[in-house]
Amino acid sequence: MTTSLTSGPAAAPPKPGGGLNWHWLGVLPFLLFATLFLILPTAYLMVGAFQNEAGHFTLANIRGLMDDNVLNAYWISFRISAASALGGGIIGFLLAWAAVQGKLPEWIRPTLMTFSGVASNFAGVPLAFAFLATLGRVGLVTTLMRKYLGFDLYSTGFSILSFTGLTLTYLYFQIPLMVLIVSPALEGLKREWREACDCLGGSAYHYWRYVALPVLWPSIMGAMLLLFANAFGAVATAYALTGSSLNIVPILLFAQIRGDVLHNPNLGYALALGMVVITGISNAGYIWLRSKSERGRT
Question: Can you give the pTM of this predicted structure?
Fold first, then answer.
């Protein structure tokens, strides 16, 4: 008598049409959206940046980027983006650390995360109006400080329509965005690492210097790069708040494409192409650092 031993149920025969991967249908809306609103507009900008008004090939628009007014606009935009990314990165990291690793009441963390999710998307005309109503010449905070503290904020040279004012406005959505980005990295810090450091006689300085920061620095730097790209490409808030009083790239681009005085659409395409290159490099750096941080935690 023989006994047949089987390791499991017999494999089901392949279904007809099994070679067609229907999972691509789930990604199709994203691919369509990316093509229509990212790839095609970028290609249109690239073509327009190398054309004149007659549609002929030219390098005049690229040479126009070397104009003093254009370079000054790029420099101011770079400074505002860097300042808001640095300030938002530091403050946002401290807030996230206090909520995730700090010994705070449990309701603080979900409240902070909920607020960050809302505030990181609050921009454009509503944000500009909110800051004008708060820190404008007759804003609420400005009036209260003048009335009860005898301090005139605008006597110090401050202006909501200046470099400092726009940077403060950007911080409103930069700080919450940093909180959302860096919180998962802080959650990845294992408690056993801190306990091992304490058992070996290490202090809090040793833990952050040799354990926490080496693990977190790719996430922190990558998040700041993302904040930089986020601020560099912001146009609605800057235009609604400052109009044409501040020479930054998004406002200069708008003036070249839609303006009555500075009307050179092809130069505007070249300006936009320059912004795409700068933000693309920042986003590429963020993706690389994020992958590096994920490999470091595995």
Answer: 0.85
Q: For the chain, list residues with pLDDT below 50.
A: 1-7
Distance of CA 184 to the CA centre of its chain: 16
The tokens describing 148, both together, are 């009860």
- Tokens representing 99 are 């909520």
Strand partners, 124: none
126 contact partners, CB below 8 Å, separation of at least 6: none
Is residue 256 within 8 Å of 274, Cβ to Cβ?
A: no
58 to 63, 76, 198: CA distances (angstroms):
10, 27, 65
pLDDT of res. 108: 92
Rounded CA separation 179/97 (Å): 9
Report the alpha-carbon angle 37-245-140, nearest 5.
95
Domains and CATH numbers, the chain: 44-297 (1.10.3720.10)
CA dihedral 270, 273, 275, 277 (to 10 degrees): -140
DSSP summary character for residue 156: G
Element (H, E) at 73: helix 68-100
